[in-house]
Each structure stands twice: as structure tokens, then as C-alpha cells.
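Page 42, continued from yesterday. The earlier attempt failed because a stray header line got pasted into the input along with the sequence. Redoing it now with the clean sequence only.
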Amino acid sequence: LDRVKEELGEAVTVIQADLSKVIQIQAMAKTIQNTGLQIDVLFANAGIAENNEILSTSEEQFDATFDTNVKAVFFTVQAMLPLMRDGGNIILNASVASNKGMNFLSLYSASKAAVRSFARTWCNDLKERKIRVNAISPGVTATPILKTGLKMSDEYLEEFKTFLATAVPTGRMADAEEIANAVCFLASDQASFVNGIELCVDGGFTQI
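This time it went through. C-alpha cells are written below.
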């Protein structure tokens, strides 16, 4: 937590919470409420990715994925909505995995399909407040989750990069900054007429 504060600087307040626990989400909202400030942009980005095989998937694995990837998103938005200004916008972090049917990712893919569905329904639910809701679906992105969540070894990761070189028209995985740039676009006034969409930032992976 101290490292995050150091990287982001003094102008940023860091609140640590387990977003799979609704009570902690509510406590986080209370902390924000006590500042007296309003939320302009909410980026719901909590998520885990783990491989699962249907015959060996446990209830604990199912709950861990859906509690973090779906329940956390739903109740974070619910808790933050009273703190958002009318005309603000919400960006939900989905994934191209929900569109591809990748091996051994049935829990992750289904959870991200739910997130994409939230964007469709919430943009309609919140139209009276003029709050835009969009989903961003990153392709494979170079982040620690590839090793910590999907348990890719260095050797497998190199093989995976070779696969992506031919499977993705751009020929590589994304850098995290490229995903952040797309989120910033959706959050900006330049996207003022963009609502309810899924923006795939995947180098063309799901488009061919």
C-alpha cells in the first residue's frame, strides 16, 4: 500500500478494501462520502483470472471468481452511485475472453460476460441521470496476472507470445498503458455520445 501511495503521489487517496466483501465496499463508500467530494468517473476494475476444468471445479473456485468479478462490480457501483454526479460515467472492465470460448476459462469468461451485460442494462437504468456506462474488453495484456493468476511459466509465456504473434493481427499482447488510454477515452468528453458499448482493445484478436 505504501508503494502505491509513493507511485501515485500526494494528490491521491488510496483506500484498501476486499471488494468481494460488501461490508468493505460500503465502508469504502463511507470514506469517500466523508470527503464531501463527488465521483466524476468510476472505473470498476477488480478481477481475478484462474484456469478451471469443469469436472474438477470446486464451489470455492466458483465463488471466488464470481464474488470478485461480478458481485464486487455490482455492489461497488451500487455503493458509489449516490456519490456520483449526474452526467458522470462508469467504465466496467470486462474481457475478450467472454467472446472467445478459451480453453479452461469457463468461470472467468462467464463472469466477464456478466460484466459486459451490466453495461447494457445500467446505461438504460441510469439514463435519467445522464450517467454513461461502458465496458472495456482488453485482450491479452502484459500484467502480473498472467503468472500469479493463470500460473504461466516463463517457458509457457514465451510460447504464448509466439501464438499471439500469428493469432492477433497486431502481432503481440497489449501493454497496460494501452488499455489505460482506452479507459481514459471512454471517461473523457470525447466519448460523450458513447454509451452501453463494449470497446475491445485487443489488437484485433476477436475481430477476425
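Notes: DSSP finds eight helices and four strands in the chain.
Reminder to self: strip header lines before submitting.
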